[in-house]
Design brief:
Elements lengths: L1 H6 L1 E5 L5 E5 L18 H12 L7 E6 L5 H9 L5 E5 L3 H12 L6 E4 L2 E2 L4 E7 L7 E2 L11 E8 L1 H7 L4 E7 L5 H6 L2 H5 L5 E5 L4 H13 L3 E5 L6 E3 L2 H6 L6 E5 L1 H7 L2
Parallel strand pairs: 3-4, 3-10, 4-5, 6-9, 10-11
Antiparallel strand pairs: 1-2, 7-8, 7-9, 11-14, 12-13, 12-14
């Protein structure tokens, strides 16, 4: 596109009513017209269902976006969440964080609070790798020796439980996690919130190996949540088992987990 070459970014409008900037390094040319700029539009379908289904209307609720990237999921949370609802978004990479803030600036007013911090199972600092594809940045050292453009640096890191201790809220309406392989550590860092049933729904990336998929499902179920795979680019859910994962024409990218109060509305 000429505009993308000249200005380095283009304005994108998707079918979920969101409008945001896309940059040359955010796969802008690969996004079809009217399609949300994500690998799985099914996530947006579930976001709208979660907010409609939630029964708690008289509590101070927030949503949390871990691995916010350029802010598209955060914008969807802000748009479809309830009145007086806040979104707290975490993006550790300063390049993505700058693009995220550009998208926030062009979507005023909004209820989104950005945090340039990683989230995991520890508090302090951690090594972080920025890859040539900024959508695959991740905690830890470089794991692809062929990516000559990768850079490793330190970032601040916190846990969901620590964040909860520092902020006044009752319930996390929706937690979305896209931490490029560190997702289970994000969940472990929110064990107290999960034990207290203060997270209603979670959308998280499906791990890539059978053992790590089993580990994540067992962890969520041990905290009283019911899980299902989100059928890619669809509003449909599928059982979260290996048979479904292996037999799918396109393996699911994301998983949904909900508390018992929402199970009948979302998973049956």
């Amino acid at each position: 596109m000429i505009a993308l070459k000249l200005r380095g970014r283009i304005r994108h409008h998707d079918r979920f009513g969101l409008s945001y900037w896309l940059w040359k390094n955010t796969r802008a040319l690969a996004i079809p017209y009217n399609h949300p700029a994500t690998d799985d539009a099914g996530v947006f379908e579930q976001i709208t269902r979660i907010y409609k289904a939630s029964s708690k209307t008289d509590t101070h609720t927030i949503s949390i976006d871990v691995g916010a990237y350029i802010g598209i999921i955060s914008l969807a949370m802000a748009k479809y969440g309830p009145a007086n609802h806040e979104v707290h978004s975490f993006e550790a990479d300063n390049v993505n964080y700058a693009m995220f803030n550009d998208n926030l600036s062009s979507n005023q007013p909004h209820s989104i609070h950005p945090h340039r911090t990683a989230v995991g199972s520890e508090i302090g600092t951690a090594q972080f790798t920025r890859t040539s594809d900024t959508g695959t940045n991740h905690l830890g050292v470089q794991d692809d020796s062929t990516d000559l453009g990768a850079v490793v640096f330190d970032v601040p890191i916190t846990t969901l439980d620590s964040f909860a201790e520092q902020h006044d809220f009752d319930v996390v309406r929706l937690l979305k996690i896209d931490a490029e392989g560190a997702d289970i550590n994000v969940l472990r860092g929110g064990s107290s919130l999960l034990n207290d049933k203060r997270i209603e729904a979670i959308i998280v990336e499906v791990p890539l190996t059978p053992d790590t998929r089993s580990e994540m499902i067992e962890f969520l179920e041990s905290h009283g949540m019911t899980t299902a795979y989100i059928q890619r680019n669809s509003d449909q859910l599928q059982p979260s088992n290996e048979e479904i994962y292996n037999d799918s024409e396109r393996a699911p990218l994301n998983m949904l987990a909900v508390i018992t109060d929402l199970e009948s509305l979302l998973l049956r």
